[in-house]
Amino acid sequence: MTDISFASGRILDNYATTAIPVTDAVARTLTVPANRRWWVFNGIVVNGDSVTRTINVIAYNSLGQEIINLLPDLSITAGATYPIRSGQASTSNPGAMNIVLKAGDYVVFTWAASGAPGAGGTGKSTLLVIEVDV
């Protein structure tokens, strides 16, 4: 994870890899730490499997309630990379603005189960944020 500091906060890319099983779903969760806020800008998600997977990225509040869909269910072909933009307009995310998440809020990247067995593989994801102390 890249951590670049400046006077009012840190830029984090939250890069990670996720093992994708042959047929099952898998998720990666990022939680805003205590006493912090995240300004979410963008990121990517990579389908590292050999088959198409439906992938989504959703932000939840600390109570587990969906607050915004950063990437609605999208079929992403094998090996493909797709951008996540917090300002990307869609029916689930109509506004074009950056999103602020508070301590305890979290973002879940989900690679859904595939309809046909793939080889499995390695998914990649990033979520570019500015993290500030509160």
Task: Give a brief outline of the structure.
This protein is mostly beta strands and about 130 residues long. It is about 0% helix and about 55% strand.
Write structural notes for this entry.
The protein is an all-beta fold and 134 residues long. The protein has one domain (3-133): Sandwich (Jelly Rolls), CATH 2.60.120. The protein contains no helices and 11 strands. The chain has strands at 3-6, 9-12, 16-20, 26-31, 36-46, 53-60, 66-76, 81-85, 99-102, 106-111, 121-133. The strands form 2 sheets. Strands 1, 2, 3, 5, 8, 9 and 11 form a 7-stranded antiparallel beta sheet that branches. A hairpin with a 5-residue loop joins β6 and β7 (66-76). It is elongated, with a radius of gyration of 15 Å. The model has no long low-confidence stretch (mean pLDDT 86).
Q: Please report the distance between the alpha carbons of the first and last residues.
A: 22 Å
**Which stretches of 5+ consecutive residues score pLDDT under 50?**
none
Shape, per Cα inertia axes: elongated
Helical content stands at under 10%
Kindly report the average pLDDT value: 86
CATH top level class name: Mainly Beta
Mind telling me which CATH architecture this is? Sandwich
The oligomeric state is single chain
Strand fraction equals: over 45%
Give the total of beta strands: 11
CATH topology: Jelly Rolls
User: Could you tell me the radius of gyration in angstroms?
Assistant: 15 Å
Helix count from the secondary structure assignment:
0
